[in-house]
Task: inverse folding
């Protein structure tokens, strides 16, 4: 059995990881709002959850991983008023809101694929779950925590707070919130300024709107995640996460909604990934301090001197703990590129080690335990990476004849380093390729090509054999003709 302990944002403590349903983990992660290109900060958060997903799978859990697409209702500045940015973009580009949604959903998927994240098990959209949201709001009204004003529905925070705690995740005190709230324009319908919208009335010109018991309108931002998480994971589930900026109001409002529906609702662990900054400053499109993943991969940007491939970016992200702030800078990217190369070469070199009768200078089982200890300590990827460097440091000493390794230990070290590198950290060496092919499939294909090449060589058909070697070389795969066999490197 594993010994995984995780940091729960709700309690502010590390806790032993247990699940509601034995070996099945139910995990919900707030997905992107699809009105613009996914930025690198968003990617960092989704990579953080990819690590959590991968590690749970690695430990042998089945994971029902739900990550939504916010394609309506997330208003500008996270307020209850103002314009929906999807509609704003549609008007600006003179296209349908759903064309905006489609364009940026594709961009989101493409970039996450390049960064080698595993897609979730279910990816529901807010617009595909309007009925569920209406039902949820009706129940909240029935339970006495929602009120209707002029075609909109609001959540009564003061009433909820009488028997429950509003703001417990972000540790905000309602009295302070009340004290600091101003009545803003358009909030006159609310009983209290800190109440939040469950449903908003749409005026006649509003494009994305649906019929509801309260008239035509659209759901509030917090409604969708409560409706979709409950639909797919039930009212008690294991993990709910997102970026740290979602703690308040989004996640605190979700908690209030779920508890208003059913007082037994519970999320066991709240996980929050920390922010990515660019050159020490907040990443923001409005100030221009922002770079898109594609611009970083192609080198087409004003911040960095050259292109950096997705695996270098992923490696950089994993060198910081997911709960720490990470800064993206040329220096950090260069160091990441260098470190990744060193690690890749080191791991590949293990296969070249000459074996001896026994092993000296390294205890592989102890090392493996340290790797698990790192990941079991709230997914500490920087510590796991340090352990991988320890392993290649040892393998380099064997290469230089300073230490020894037995055949059994060599095979074990090859297997374990590659599992931690590829499976756990997701540092697939093929992330730059357009189509991600599994290592196993690629291995089989290469074996076949090598066989065909050997046959051509023995038939003195050097045109074919050279072509196979050269074409593979062009895509980064080198064939090495050794005395008795041909091996490959990529
Ligand atoms: P959004 O599309 O704005 O809803 O954001 C999608 C996810 O990215 C959310 O979980 C945000 O908390 C997260 N996020 C936004 N900005 C950053 C950033 N600079 N660094 C890390 N995560 C971020
Ligand atoms: Zn959400």
Result:
């Amino acid at each position: 059995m594993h010994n995984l302990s995780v940091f729960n944002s709700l309690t502010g403590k590390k806790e032993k990881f247990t699940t509601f349903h034995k070996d099945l983990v139910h995990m919900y992660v707030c997905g992107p709002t699809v009105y613009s290109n996914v930025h690198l900060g968003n990617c960092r958060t989704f990579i953080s959850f990819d690590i959590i997903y991968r590690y749970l799978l690695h430990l042998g859990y089945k994971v029902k991983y739900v990550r939504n697409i916010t394609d309506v209702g997330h208003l500008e500045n996270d307020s209850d008023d103002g314009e929906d940015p999807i509609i704003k973009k549609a008007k600006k580009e003179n296209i349908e809101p759903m064309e905006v949604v489609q364009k940026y959903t594709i961009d989101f998927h493409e970039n996450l694929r390049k960064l080698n994240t595993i897609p979730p098990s279910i990816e529901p959209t807010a617009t595909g779950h309007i009925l569920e949201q209406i039902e949820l709001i009706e129940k909240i009204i029935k339970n006495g925590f929602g009120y209707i004003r002029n075609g909109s529905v609001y959540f009564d925070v003061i009433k909820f707070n009488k028997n429950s705690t509003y703001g417990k995740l972000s540790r905000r005190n309602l009295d302070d919130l009340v004290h600091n709230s101003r009545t803003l324009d358009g909030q006159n319908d609310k009983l209290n300024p800190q109440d939040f919208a469950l449903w908003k009335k749409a005026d006649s010109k509003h494009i994305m709107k649906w019929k509801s018991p309260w008239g035509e309108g659209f759901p509030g931002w917090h409604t969708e995640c409560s409706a979709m998480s409950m639909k797919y994971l039930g009212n008690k589930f294991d993990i709910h996460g997102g970026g740290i900026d979602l703690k308040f109001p989004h996640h605190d409002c979700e908690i209030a909604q779920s508890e208003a529906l059913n007082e037994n609702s519970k999320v066991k662990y709240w996980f929050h990934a920390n922010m990515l900054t660019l050159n020490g400053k907040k990443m923001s499109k409005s100030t221009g301090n922002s770079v898109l993943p594609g611009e970083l991969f192609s080198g087409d940007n004003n911040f960095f001197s050259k292109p950096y491939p997705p695996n270098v970016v992923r490696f950089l992200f994993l060198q910081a703990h997911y709960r720490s702030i990470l800064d993206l800078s040329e220096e950090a990217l260069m160091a990441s590129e260098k470190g990744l190369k060193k690690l890749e070469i080191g791991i590949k070199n293990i296969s070249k080690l000459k074996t001896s009768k026994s092993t000296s200078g390294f205890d592989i089982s102890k090392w493996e335990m340290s790797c698990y200890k790192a990941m079991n300590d709230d997914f500490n990827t920087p510590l796991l990476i340090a352990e991988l460097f320890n392993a290649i440091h040892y393998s380099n000493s064997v290469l230089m004849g300073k230490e020894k390794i037995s055949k059994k230990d060599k095979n074990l070290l090859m297997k374990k380093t590659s599992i931690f590198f590829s499976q756990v950290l997701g540092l697939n060496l093929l992330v730059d390729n357009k189509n991600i092919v599994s290592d196993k499939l690629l291995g089989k294909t290469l074996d076949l090509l090598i066989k065909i090449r050997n046959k051509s060589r023995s038939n003195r058909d050097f045109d074919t054999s050279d072509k196979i070697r050269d074409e593979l070389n062009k895509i980064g795969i080198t064939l090495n003709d050794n005395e008795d066999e041909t091996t490959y490197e990529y």
Residues 430-437 have pLDDT under 50 and may be disordered. The longest helix spans residues 330-350. Residues 151 and 215 are 6 Å apart (CA to CA).
